[in-house]
Design a protein that fits this description.
The chain has about 280 residues and is α/β, with parallel strands linked by helices. It has one domain: Rossmann fold. It has twelve helices and twelve strands. The strands form three sheets. Strands 6-7-8-3-9-10 form a six-stranded mixed sheet, with helices on both faces. It has a four-stranded antiparallel sheet with strand order 2-1-4-5, with helices on one face. Helix 4 packs parallel to helix 7. It is globular, with a radius of gyration of 19 Å. The two termini are about 25 Å apart. The relative contact order is 0.16.
Length: about 280
């Protein structure tokens, strides 16, 4: 059985999105990502996994053109979308090409209504397209339709996450990047969010790049995954391959041959030498 990476290479090496030997530095001094290569095939869900500080969010910021807001820079390597290098494009140019990110922490416009937030998301589209996209968002998130006149700042965390995703969908993205969509949410809300992510792939044929610390939830729906540690990719493979990997089970899923371990216990384990081989 071939992997997604092998399939892409067989098709000519083309990914919808590709990071090639990326190195990202902050403040001309702090290396956040080193020599990272990641491929995202069209129509797939690809998960970026790892602990805080591993470099996951930095990759999304590099892809979205917003590194400059934190004095970050792609010092070497390239980011390609549909075969064209895009690391030098501005955020609005990337959105128009179909690359859209939902940032960590949701970041809705708190003083605007749900409806107004969605309209802001559709600013690159015509009025007719905006109405059509809004109807699709409301169909996907009936809760937003019910509360469309409510001020976003008074919504629950789960509702704000739905709105943040809905606002991103208003641009009709080709690739949607989600940064920690389950962070701080109740399990039932997480279930709903993840159901929507799967529907984006199966019904809308959308490509999803998913950054998560909750490795189990991400691998449950992903086609392929990459695990990052201290700015490097240390392991990658299909979701089923990663889930079956002994090290992934122990360090990211909290399971070992002696049973489930707490996150506190797991943090005190030293990585085996083969981890970085």
């Amino acid at each position: 059985m071939t992997t997604m990476r092998e399939d892409a290479k067989a098709a000519g090496g083309q990914y919808l999105l590709e990071f090639r030997n990326i190195r990202v530095v902050y403040d001309n001094a702090i290396e956040a990502v080193r020599d990272v290569s990641i491929g995202v095939p069209e129509g797939s869900i690809v998960a970026l996994l790892g602990s805080n500080g591993a470099g996951k969010s930095t990759l999304l910021k590099a892809m979205s053109g917003i590194l400059y807001t934190e004095e970050g820079e792609v010092e070497s390597g390239s980011i390609s979308f549909r075969g064209q290098e895009v690391q030098h494009l501005t955020p609005d140019e990337l959105v128009r090409r179909g690359v859209v990110q939902v940032p960590e922490g949701r970041r809705v416009f708190p003083a605007l209504t749900i409806d107004e937030n969605l309209l802001m998301g559709g600013y690159t589209r015509s009025k007719a397209e905006t109405r059509e996209r809004r109807d699709k968002v409301f169909a996907m998130f009936p809760r937003l339709f019910e509360r469309r006149d409510q001020i976003a700042g008074y919504m629950s965390g789960g509702e704000q996450q739905m709105l943040a995703i809905g606002r991103a969908l208003m641009t009709d993205p080709v690739l949607l990047a989600l940064d920690e969509p389950s962070l701080g949410l109740a399990p039932l809300i997480i279930d709903r969010i993840y159901e929507v992510i799967v529907r984006l792939r199966t019904e809308l044929k959308m490509t999803v790049l998913l950054v998560e610390q909750n490795a189990q939830r991400a691998l449950d729906i992903a086609d392929y995954g990459y695990i990052l540690e201290t700015g490097r990719v240390v392991l990658d493979g299909t979701a089923s391959k990663l889930t079956a990997n002994e090290d992934v089970q122990e360090f990211y899923l909290g399971v070992s041959s002696s049973g489930r371990k707490s996150l506190r216990d797991v943090k005190h384990y030293k990585r085996r030498k083969r981890w970085l081989s």
